[in-house]
Design a protein that fits this description.
By secondary structure, the protein is α/β, with parallel strands linked by helices. It is 37% helix and 24% strand. The strands form 3 sheets. It has a 5-stranded mixed beta sheet. Strand 9, helix 5 (144-153) and strand 10 form a beta-alpha-beta unit. It is globular, with a radius of gyration of 21 Å.
Length: 260
Amino acid sequence: MIRRLFLVAAAVAWFVAPGGAEAREWKKIRIGVEGAYPPFSWINPQGKLEGFDIDIAYALCAKIGAECELVLQDWDGMIPALLAKKFDAIVASMSITEERKKKVDFTDKYYQTPARFVRKKGSGIEITREGLKGKKIGVQRATIHDNYLTDNYGDTVEIVRYGTQDEANLDMIAGRLDLLLADSIALLEGLLKTEKGKDFEFVGPELRDPRWFGEGAGIAVRKEDQDLKKLLNEAIKAIRADGTYDAIARKYFDFDIYGG
């Protein structure tokens, strides 16, 4: 009889959590963040994390009723660190792409903005194959922008890859690059609106092709953590509905960051 009860209990446990994973209450959620991508995340002079992604992460945890632990992680190690269980979710402006979905799952988007090129004012550089020929273009390594540049212009430009967007911006200011390619809002707030960025400007069209730029920024989770994905999706809908999302967005942006 004892053996029969054990087998029944084991079968129920497998049904509730297929693959052997234990169901969790998610009283604490560890969230991977970058901390070097203003206005979405940065570390202030007092050593505290700030930014849109940071506020969104805390708001989602609060809505779920879970403690929120933020874990700093370099961008190009984000997905490997998630899979290694260094943290449970990524809130770091990560675009939802088919390539990334092979390794991780994503929530619904929590914002969507286009990519843009930036040039120095007066440079006359145009965004055509001929206009970009031989130009040095800075991108953050292992991003959608890196992929787009490599696939479309890799045979005609010199791609200079950086660990953070701040590093790329600094080299642009120093005159070591002809162009930058990144998220338009990151470039606007992190460079163009700053004193050091006053001599630079956007050039070319907004870039939105989902083949490279995905379906917006989502929260990445491990494929086995479907319960966490569901909780986060419900929390995104809840903060959108109760005004929390809009209040956070107004701190950083004077337009609709969520996108159509």
